[in-house]
Amino acid sequence: MIFALVGNQNSGKTTLFNQLTGSNQRVGNFPGVTVEQKMGEIKTNKNCTVVDLPGIYSLRPFSSEEIDTRDFILNEKPDVIINIIDATNIERNLYLTLQLLEMEIPMVLALNMMDEVRNNGGTIDVKKMSEKLGIPVVPISAAKNEGVDELVKTSIYAAKGCHRANKKSIYAAKGCHRANKNKHLYNKKKIYPKIIDFCDSGPVHRCIHAVSHMIEDYAENAGVSARFAATMLIEGDESIIKRLKIDENELITTEHCIIVMEAEHMMDRNSALADMRYTFIEKVCAETVTKIPESKEHIRSVRIDRVFTNKYLAIPLFIGIMLAVFWLTFGVIGTFLSDMLAMAISELTVFVESGLEAYGINRVVHSLIIDGIFAGVGSVLSFLPIIVTLFFFLSILEDTGYMARVAFVMDKLLRKIGLSGRSFVPMLIGFGCTVPAIMATRTLPSERDRKRTILLTPFMSCSAKIPIYAVFTAAFFTEYQALVMISLYVTGIIFGILTAVIINKTGSKGKPVPFVMELPNYRLPSFKSVVLLMWERARDFLQRAFTVIFVATIVIWFLQSFDPKLNVVTDPADSLLAIIGKTLSPLFVPLGFGDWRVSTSLIAGISAKEAVISTLSVLTATSVDKLSATLGSLFTPLSAISFLVFTLLYTTCIAAVTAMKRELKSAAKALLIVIMQCVIAYVASLVIYQTGSAIF
Ligand code: GDP
Ligand code: MG
After folding, report:
1. Is residue 297 within 6 Å of ligand 1 at its C-beta?
2. Please, which residues have CB within 8 angstroms of residue 441's CB and are 6 or more apart in sequence?
């Protein structure tokens, strides 16, 4: 039995999913956290599978995640839809509910956040709402695990009733209310009195009925409800025309019905349907919801927002907060923890090394373990604390609801370069890792904004580059470490902006879709979700350290330890690796880093950015804590800057390129982005190094 969780963004779907399945999916006080559907077994009932779908506001989708969610419902035919709505914001949430009702799939309404409604002194007449909507309504609080068991029971009941009915009837949807008529389970409980008409008479009513009658057979063949198909047709949805394989004649008749309706109703088709739904929602709410005018949380949020989204204060505050986060991460906490871990790793290395020596192990194996694995993986591992600390702060900012404000404030600025405030979300995630950032572009409502955002996210310096920055700034800019680090981030952003401006001037025209992201109320960050995010990042990082980077260091150790005839080399300059590196290194001479070891590390960096440092450490046969000293012989401060800018801008790692390919549905486009980035990186470093050398 399959339950589909459907609802607006931020309505608590993932929280409920976690409660139901006992899993730990990420929850965020931020629209667009869930971009992929997740499945899980229900803890209390192993026969039931629940699917957490990305949030949607309507079944007339704009963004690709909305399309995914709708197609899931239409194609996978879940046994029951659990429509979860934010009870503190019923009117807006019910819009989707009405559209779902038209699909005539068994459905249960979960009124979430009832704890907040209660705290604010509001009440909702659940029974009456259930009568009005014709479906079971269950009040719950996903966060407090209240009403969840009741919800499961009701859902199973709803699904079963329909399932049995299905045997009698060929079409799932219709069977459902035929069953109701036939004194089925529901009737006994009076859960489903009848299918609800949102308006009883008038032009819209006539139009919907006329169209649904006409297309009934098409709908039956396509396995969707006629009612749903009719409203989609009236709203002019292209995909439904394809799905129904509808005849030209019927389309003309439909168009005729709509024109008559528009004339009689004096409203265009979309407004007419929206008006019908909102009028119905208003009526339902008037009879069932007693609300305290403004919730406490809301009043508090508005007060806080007076400061944080203030016209003049918003951006300086944001910059200030980000600087503080960076300073704490790179200057104080993260660095301290990293140093501790690096010390522990080097102690362990010494310990293992003496053990191996005492055992008298083969020299090549000894070299593999100590120079290859320990130097390579160990070097990368010591940066784990910095990444975790950074994400600790970022997840607090996100969980409180502040990040949503930032996106809102940034909307105006981003609009100037042809993007929308929503593009800010993926870009921000890009500072962590480009892969989820590119996936997060699915929340963007327009293909145009989406492509542009995918193109720009790689300019946001990902956390895998932190080890590179940390080592180099420690070697060359000890006093200004945080400053150089921030400058690099800013440089990436500036290049992103420049690219956006250029595309905006030259690329396809069209305006970004208006900003519709909702500002959630400020909430205290939940300890669990902060820890979860930190763990997720740490896990990603560890996984990479022990897979990609592990393999990369072994490959590099191998290439470095043997010559073309597979003899162990005595002079590193004779190794296989040196030969490859030397072939490429002339390319980098004009940029100031022509040493073969450097060009080799850049190649290794394509597998994962951390591998740049692990490779340098393997190639120079120094552990990472001493690497800073060794770098002095390979770089001058100027060429170090040139190198840092190059690593900042040149191609993303393989994983991100694959993600781009998937999201753009084109290998050629992904490759083009890679080439573009490499060219930009090369030119930028060239300019820096050449002007720098000319001046100093
Ligand atoms: P999704 O976008 O629909 O998956 O929503 P999430 O599950 O990510 O939740 C959005 C926010 O609402 C998070 O900050 C949750 O902690 C919060 N939340 C979820 N359920 C409840 C609830 O029952 N009561 C309260 N007060 N907050 C909740
Ligand atoms: Mg979610």
Report:
1. no
2. 423, 426, 450, 453, 454, 457, 663
Q: For residue 12, report the distance from its CA to the centre of ligand 2, in Å.
A: 7
Contacts of 368 (CB under 8 A, 6+ apart): 554, 557, 561
pLDDT-derived band at 34, boundaries 50, 70, 90: low
0.85 exceeded by pTM: no
Query: What is the position in ligand 1's atom list of the atom closest to the CA of 141?
Result: 23
For residue 543 the two structure tokens come to 């996984």
Q: Are 97 and 109 in contact (CB under 8 A)?
A: yes
From 5, 9, 11, 15, give the residue whose CB has the most ligand 1 atoms within 8 Å, as the site to mutate: 15
Pairing assessment for the beta strands 45-52 and 38-42 based on DSSP bridges: antiparallel
The reply to whether ligand 1 has any atom less than 6 angstroms from the CB of 141 is yes
Which residues are near ligand 2, the ion (C-beta closer than 5 Å)?
14, 33-34
H helices present in 517-610, as ranges: 527-546, 548-561, 576-584, 596-604
Q: Is the pLDDT of residue 512 over 80?
A: no
**CA pair distance 110, 129, nearest whole angstrom:** 12
Determine the distance separating the centroid of ligand 2 and the alpha carbon of 7, expressed in angstroms.
10
Residue 481 tokens, joined: 């470490």
- The residue with tokens 């009513």 is 205
Average pLDDT over residues 137-150: 93
- CA–CA distance from 604 to each of 148, 186, 561, 615, 683 (Å)? 50, 63, 16, 7, 21
Domains defined for the chain, CATH in brackets: 2-167 (3.40.50.300), 203-288 (1.10.287.1770), 316-695 (no CATH)
Which residues pair with residue 138 across a beta bridge? 110
pLDDT of residue 529: 78
Q: Quick one: pLDDT band at residue 29, thresholds 50, 70, 90? A: low
User: Pick from 35, 13, 4: which is nearest to 113 by CA?
Assistant: 13
Q: Hey, what are 566's tokens?
A: 């597979």
Exposed, middle or buried by CB within 10 Å (0-12, 13-18, 19+), for 696?
Answer: exposed
In this prediction, residues 56-84 reach a mean pLDDT of: 85
